[in-house]
Amino acid sequence: MTSIITELNPGLMQWFDGQHLQHKKHEAMQLLTVSEDAWPHQAMISVGELVAISPTVLRLALWSGTQTSQNMERTGKATLIAIVDHQLLTIRLALRALPPLPGSVHPRDRYEGEIRSIRVDHAPYADITSGITFQLKDEPGTLKRWEETIAELRL
Model pTM? Predict the structure, then answer.
């Protein structure tokens, strides 16, 4: 079953709130953009690199100078794919670059994305149990970096 919503509901706001990262540390999402030669470009983004500012706005922090950043700068668009609460979310974002933060602990390319639509897919006969997951190599260091990155995205 598919439904279309235009903003994050309270449960999704909580999932994207940048809090309790230790409980979400294995979750990864796909961030899709379009390359200069018009091919889809897929990148990974973690819960420590994005935060919901409001039900209609997400902020993202990407490693500087990546192909994904270049694509987002050029098109002003991206699609975020996430599995949350047994649902497949396809979130279309209209993006604008945020200025660099002087003295940033973890300098990143920062973007603010206005949610244009969220397609929510789920099957009545089965639960989606996971999306892309990973194991952190330096869990304490990564969680600390994520917390600092989220704090800077809130600025």
Answer: 0.93
